[in-house]
Design goal:
The complex is a heterodimer. By secondary structure, chain A is mainly alpha-helical. Chain A is built from 24 helices and eight strands. A four-stranded antiparallel β-sheet of chain A has the order 1-2-3-6, sandwiched between helices. Chain A has a two-stranded antiparallel sheet with strand order 4-5. Chain B is mainly alpha-helical. The longest helix of chain B has 16 residues. Classes of the chains: A mainly alpha, B mainly alpha.
């Protein structure tokens, strides 16, 4: 390879192997794509122009923020007629903003800052003009419900809001006020051209100011041992202008229901395609219920992996998420990698589809939480306890039974427990075979168990009796009391001669519950589910 | 009966492993009780259930042995099994053993009779 090739490779944008910067790179690519309509390849090859970035960044955020603000506008106490005309106006405003942003992207001659200011004021004027006639009816939805959108827009300098960067002085609401527009832009300019992030302490420190995932410099715990790393250090390491990527960090996060999620894998193309697919599909089902959105995200990932038919797989993927930002802190942060065992199981269509569901696992008084089974599964948590809670809600009559997810969840759990009991070493034949045998076992088990356990519903024709038995069995399971569980079960079955002498049934009980020390609870719960299931059909 | 279904339970006591083949026990019990009347067996099962719940091994074996102590009926297979596995067992082993016996008895209920 000659030196020119070397240089070319250096200029290409590629992942660095550090997720923190890589997600920024992904954000940068998304940004360029969104604003200039470039494709992945050309963004990677082209030289990065900081002015282009400057312009793109503000246009992207002004549009995004304006859309968000307008989206959440509502009227208070008005007639249906006025409401529908208001919805119409909202749509109009959005499409006009879209036009403004699009028209401005084609000319590059004038100064970047002037262009941004121009777009900003045009959008402000559009909003003011269109919403003027609703001035008295608008709900106050800003600054703790004290201001309407008109007041807010009147006070704000540049329409830009990114909770992730509230520590950056230019995005701080106290700085970003009417009349301060140029000041904001100058601060941003300093940041990307001179690496000046803050005015106090180390000016170019890579700390909480630039990313919520880091420490703040004041609290930096390693000071006795080393200095805090600076942008220059990181630039040297990665051979890039990292500030651009750090600023783009929040862009690739997809908002999935109540959390922000990004899927990270160490290959730029895969990572880009997967996240893009998710974004597009989420857009499509935006108005449907949140459960659909959850299904869609996993579908996108697995579709991509199946399409690629490559060795690339789920095991190389990380899921990074945070719920929200409060008081400048990230809430509910999770970094989840997908273990090989779980990845192999998830690649099976049927199992994945069943687990790709949210089930109610807390009652309304406890916050009414729902659990996304697939997520708990890849975290390596036991699904049994979640499903146990779900069944409890059904017994108290709060919710209806989610059959397939519970059945698959319990069987997967049971088989993993058995598997772990038998295999003491990690690198067994199974490991290199991608746990194929295990997946097959689980699927076989589904058909056997579905049939044999469903026989229990013959125990009685009476719904109330079945419910009573289910409740008794449930309390025995909660106490992990196998003796009590079997006692209650057999006492009730004993009344029914036909069921008692059913070979499939007693063989199943003997194998799955009596002679099973590792996973009898899961099978027991399946019996309870069957008792509750018939009830629903009737 | 499918030969592959061998249920196996094992516990190590001292240096001597004790094991029970639950499926063999079930078969022997079924074989022994097949000619008894269903009503009688149902009552027997209720009585035995009570003793297992209290983990009362003495009472369990007392009732069971009383039931099979009938020279005219053939309980040879079951007696062989009992001879092999009768012992003072730890609670979990006893639970597994006892419920297997019950399943064995219940498996022989006559389906044709009306459920009273």
């Amino acid at each position: 390879m000659n030196s020119i090739d070397q240089k070319e490779i250096h200029d290409h944008i590629d992942f660095t192997g550090n997720w923190f910067i890589d997600i920024g790179i992904l954000g940068f690519i998304n940004l360029m794509e969104e604003v200039y309509g470039l494709d992945l390849e050309s963004i990677r090859v082209n030289q990065i122009d900081k002015k282009d970035f400057f312009y793109a960044y503000f246009v992207y955020y002004i549009k995004k923020t304006a859309f968000e603000w307008i989206d959440r506008q509502k009227l208070s106490k008005v007639t249906e007629d006025k409401k529908s005309s208001f919805e119409e106006t909202k749509k109009n405003v959005l499409s006009e903003i879209e036009k403004v942003v699009k028209n401005r992207t084609t000319t590059y001659d004038d100064d970047v800052k002037d262009k941004i200011l121009d777009i900003n004021s045009t959008i402000k004027n559009i909003v003011k003009e269109k919403f003027k006639k609703y001035e008295n009816d608008l709900k106050k939805s800003f600054s703790n419900n004290k201001k309407t959108i008109l007041q807010k827009i009147d006070e704000t300098g540049i329409i830009i809001n990114e909770p992730f960067f509230q520590n950056l002085n230019f995005l701080n609401p106290t700085t970003n006020k009417k009349g301060n527009e140029t000041k904001v832009l100058n601060a941003f300019e300093k940041m990307i051209f001179n690496n000046e992030i803050k005015s106090k302490l180390t000016k170019d420190a890579v700390d909480k100011t630039i990313s919520k995932y880091l420490f703040s410099e004041e609290e930096f715990p390693n000071i006795p041992y080393c200095k805090i790393s600076t942008l220059n250090d990181v630039d040297k390491l990665t051979n890039r202008t990292t500030i651009l990527f750090l600023l783009s960090f929040p862009i690739p996060f997809n908002s999935v229901y109540d959390r922000n999620i990004v899927f990270y894998t160490n290959n730029l193309e895969s990572c880009y395609h997967i996240n893009k697919n998710i974004k597009i599909r989420i857009q499509k089902v935006k108005d449907e219920n949140p459960d659909t959105i959850f299904k869609v995200t996993w579908q996108s990932i697995v579709d991509y992996i199946t399409e690629q038919k490559s060795t690339f797989s789920l095991e190389n993927m990380y899921l990074i998420e945070y719920e929200t930002i409060q008081q400048q802190n990230l809430i509910g942060v999770e970094y989840i990698s997908i273990p090989k065992l779980q990845a192999s199981i998830l690649l099976d269509d049927k199992i994945r589809e069943a687990l790709n569901t949210r089930i109610q696992c807390k009652s309304a008084n406890e916050g009414g939480g729902k659990c996304w089974l697939i997520e708990e599964f890849i975290k390596g948590k036991s699904l049994y306890s979640i499903i146990l809670n779900h069944i409890n809600l059904i017994l108290t009559g709060v919710d209806h039974l989610n059959w397939a997810p519970c059945l698959y969840g319990l069987l997967v759990d049971a088989h993993i427990a058995d598997f772990r009991g038998k295999n003491k070493t990690l690198f067994s034949d199974n490991f290199f075979d991608n746990y194929r045998a295990l997946v097959k076992e689980i699927k076989d088990e589904v058909s056997i168990t579905t049939f044999s356990s469903s026989l229990i519903s013959k125990i009685s024709d009476d719904v109330d009796t079945k419910r009573r038995v289910a409740r008794d069995l449930y309390s025995a399971l909660c106490g992990k009391d196998k003796n009590m569980f079997l006692n209650i079960l057999l006492k009730n079955v004993n009344e029914n001669k036909e069921l008692s002498s059913n070979r499939n049934f007693y063989n199943w009980i003997l194998e799955k519950i009596i002679s099973n020390e590792t996973s009898f609870e899961m099978y027991g719960l399946i019996l309870i589910m069957n008792l509750l299931r018939r009830e629903k059909n009737e | 009966m499918n030969e592959k279904n061998i249920y196996y339970w094992q516990k190590v006591v001292g240096d001597r492993p004790i094991s029970m083949d639950l499926e063999d026990i079930r078969k022997a019990v079924s074989e022994g009780f097949k000619s008894e009347s269903t009503n009688y067996k149902q009552k027997l099962v209720y009585n035995l259930l009570e003793t297992i719940r209290n983990n009362d091994q003495k009472e369990f074996f007392y009732i069971l042995l009383k039931a099979i102590n009938k020279p005219k009926k053939d309980y040879t297979l079951l007696l062989e099994q009992l001879n092999k596995s009768y012992d003072v067992m730890p609670e979990e082993a006893f639970t597994n053993f006892a419920y297997t016996v019950l399943i064995g008895i219940m498996a022989t209920y006559d389906r044709g009779e009306k459920n009273e």
